[in-house]
Predict the 3D structure of the following.
Amino acid sequence: MEPADNLGQIAGEVHACKLCRLHVGRKNAVPGEGPANAELLFIGEGPGFHENEQGRPFVGAAGKFLEELLASIGLKREDVFICNVVKCRPPGNRDPQADEIEACSSYLDRQINTINPKAIITLGRFSMARYFPKARISAIHGQAKQVDGRLIVPMYHPAAALHQPSLRQVVMQDFARLPGYLDQVTDISPTTHEPPEDPQQLSLF
Ligand code: URA
Ligand code: SF4
């Protein structure tokens, strides 16, 4: 199947999904969106009020800031793939629960495998925890690490920067490092580099 068709198939399954309790209160599931050949894939937490209304990711205040951050490195939201760890809105925007994240994880895994992005940017602690379960975001934000052969860059959630203005500059600076990371990915040929012995520990940059 073509990657775009594959993404469509996954989105169709998400819209019909009842694998966890979050299907009960949803108005619209939010599978995620973006080009099937995106180089960058962003993972947020879960749909909020506006996302649930519209069925699209990051369309509220956090999304506006995400668009500003993308613009600061010359990108538009249409250039990247944007999705979440859970595809349905947790009631009242509560944190997604471990069993909900687990139930939803195969959709995200399949999206990542289909798109095969150069880098994954995690936004906030729930998507960070997929790759760095024990890490503190204050310690590792903005630092690219290779996990299972893929470049992962943990970032603060844009909503955190809206609530805590001092983080705004930090997030801007972390985003400013992304283009440099991508340039280096192109230089890393899988045929000339052995996989790292302990990918969690290896900092590439
Ligand atoms: N916050 C998220 O984590 N995801 C969205 O889609 C919107 C806001
Ligand atoms: Fe299914 Fe994910 Fe929605 Fe739960 S959050 S119902 S697993 S699509």
User: Anything to note?
Assistant: The pocket of iron/sulfur cluster (ligand 2) is lined by residues 14, 17-20, 22-23, 29, 86-88, 100, 103-104 (CB under 6 Å).
